Amino acid sequence: MTATVPPKAPTFLGLPTAPRGVGHLRGDQSFPDAARGALRDGQLRANLGHATSTIRGKRAKVVGELPDWAQLREAGRALKAATMARLDEHLEELERQVTARGGVVHWARDANEANEIVTRLVQATGTSEVVKVKSMATQEIGLNEALEAAGLDVFETDLAELIVQLGEDSPSHILVPAIHKNRAEIREIFARTIPGVDPELTDDPRQLAMAARTHLRERFLRARVAVSGANFAVAETGTLTVVESEGNGRMCLTLPETLITVMGIEKVVPTWRDLEVFLQLLPRSSTGERMNPYTSTWAGVTPGDGPQEFHLVLLDNGRTGVLADEVGREALHCIRCSACLNVCPVYERAGGHSYGSVYPGPIGAVLSPMLTGVEDNASLPYASSLCGACYDVCPVAIDIPSILVHLRAEHVEAQERPTAEAVAFRGLARVMSHPRLWHLAQRASRLGRLIARGRPTLPNALPPPISGWTRSRDLPTPPKETFVESWVREHGS
Amino acid sequence: MKVALFATCLVDTLTPSVARATATLLQRLGHEVVVPPGQSCCGQMHVNTGYRREAVPIVANHVRAFAGAEAIVAPSGSCVASIHHQQAAVARRAGEHRLAEEAEELAGRTYELSQFLVDVLGVTDVGAYYPHRVTYHPTCHSLRLLKVGEAPLHLLRAVRGLELVELPGAEQCCGFGGTFAVKNADTSTAMLTDKMANVLGTHAEVCTAGDASCLMHIGGGLSRLRAGTRTVHLAEILASTEEAVTPDQTTKPAVSA
């Protein structure tokens, strides 16, 4: 009898594959359904169109200033690719260095585990309030909801996150979570929700910022625990980095006694020198600035200075699964600059909430289905016209259109029973690969001439899926003869 | 040169005048045009909708139809982009390595019309006459995947009688995107609405581009609006001459240059 070999846990590049991502990565509607509502909202479209075109212009200007942008972009891409190829080693090095400097490293396989770890750490401090630095990882895992469910009060300190939190809304942009709100709407939220706010508050940006500042200052001075994300983590020194514009993050990183950082495992960079590249690519791509107003770095704890307790939660939540996909792996290179959102014509019109996930726009359309498994976010890979503007602006050259097409194929190939569409496409493929059948099919398309009854366009009342076209566009009536037919008739074959 | 014309499935079936114009233009420039009758489609629609396995026999047919051609020209940026960027990749993925090599080799001889004229033949003035106010929409695949750059603009600027007006927001997608226009019909329509507003704002009589598919989308929208502006493929403008103006063009007053 031969000994049976126990099935090995699936691994890739030295990392065990964690369960699929959970948390705020799925919507309860498909993209086309969710977009329908957003498209009808004229105010939303005006807000988004204005904001994205402003950021687009700023980005183009500061990127244009750098003669070596193409080389920087290539350096960023190459650094990310090299890091991903040995991610396990870099993460182990990061853990060693953080631990050596007095920090504690926790590994979370998914959102639930990460939330449990953070909740437990906060509860251990005996406090009931947490201040937060804006972070996509904690949005992804739904940390605020988890902490609130445990009876803790969570205060967002980033201005845009504060607007979203006070408005009981959800973020719709990676960098500008309240991009869908204009000044007048923000004034209304502040006037309604900030205790003791000046009733004379106008929608002047300075006045709004000052109102938020007064409100937040009190929270900073009171807080004993802060939760942050990280833009980068340097493996060789165990250094964490947060870049931001307002300084609220730095308050959170320095004032409280305990600091808990939640970070996706893909954020590690091997060496301190690598930051040189990313700290140029990120601000120019994201906010259209030459450098970030605030760049904070810290490593472990220093007695008598800053937080005396530091915890780093390394989050997988589907990332090792993405890493195992040779085409999609590139999506993990994302540095969350959101340049792709600001140039995407689909995002600009359908808005961030239509994507259902905390990651909207082109990068969200690839990252979310990869983290959750494509079947859970099946409409997102199709939420793109494949115009390629996202690939053009991506500072680390993620080929988003190719990944979208790859995911569409994964979705189609995973279907157990053939859909009507699959039957049609398979039939068409057979026809298109046999010239004789193709010419017969082209002739059959002329039946449209009967429906058109001499008019230059087909009638609007055609069945689905053609109705998706004719609802807003006229479809031309097929001509009497194809080009190839007429050519063969005149010239012979 | 002996040029094989790839009409593309859409042009061949729905807008044969575009392929006809391409052939006329190339012949007028002194080239011999052949039309391989076995041609059908490049496979782009299948690949982009997720049917990459199904695209393999379509690629095989394309490679078979154009085997031995010296140069292949198509009046479509997106089909040529698919030939350059997708055909070999889907064949290789399916384990069809020989086909992948053949497709790669064929892609090296395949050109989008404006690129062929400007970059290969070195011609910008093709002797065309088109007395209309025209705006140019650079389609996404021509612009970003193929990087045709200024080639179509150089060609249009050399057309006698033609007044070229700049299209605001030219580089924004028109919202076609193949099956995107059907699967995400509402978002596609929102994108088209903005594109049409920009086109109509130029007061051009004609909106042109190097892709019949995008023009079918924009033209279909303009037709629905009963807007006066028409869409005309770049090949048809370049094929027009003073000797061969259509009755439609002679009745319209020439716009002063």
Automatic annotation (TrEMBL), chain A:
GO biological process: lactate metabolic process
Residue intervals of the 4Fe-4S ferredoxin-type domain: 331-398
Chain positions covered by the region annotation Disordered: 1-21
Residues of the LUD domain: 91-312
UniProt keyword annotations, A-Z: 4Fe-4S, Electron transport, Iron, Iron-sulfur, Metal-binding, Repeat, Transport
Domain Lactate utilization protein B C-terminal span(s) in chain numbering: 415-491
GO MF entries: 4 iron, 4 sulfur cluster binding; metal ion binding
Taxonomy, superkingdom: Bacteria
Pfam families: Fer4_8, LUD_dom, LutB_C
Family annotation (Gene3D superfamilies): Alpha-helical ferredoxin (1.10.1060.10), NagB/RpiA/CoA transferase-like (3.40.50.10420)
PANTHER family: LACTATE UTILIZATION PROTEIN B (PTHR47153:SF2)
Name of the protein in its database record: Iron-sulfur cluster-binding protein
Organism name: Modestobacter marinus
UniProtKB/TrEMBL annotation, chain B:
Gene Ontology molecular function: oxidoreductase activity
Domain of life: Bacteria
Xref: InterPro entries: Cys_rich_dom
GO cellular component term of the entry, any: cytosol
Pfam families: CCG
Domain Cysteine-rich, chain residue ranges per copy: 3-83, 134-218
PANTHER family: LACTATE UTILIZATION PROTEIN A, UNCHARACTERIZED PROTEIN YKGE
Protein name, as recorded: Glycolate oxidase
Source species of the chain: Modestobacter marinus
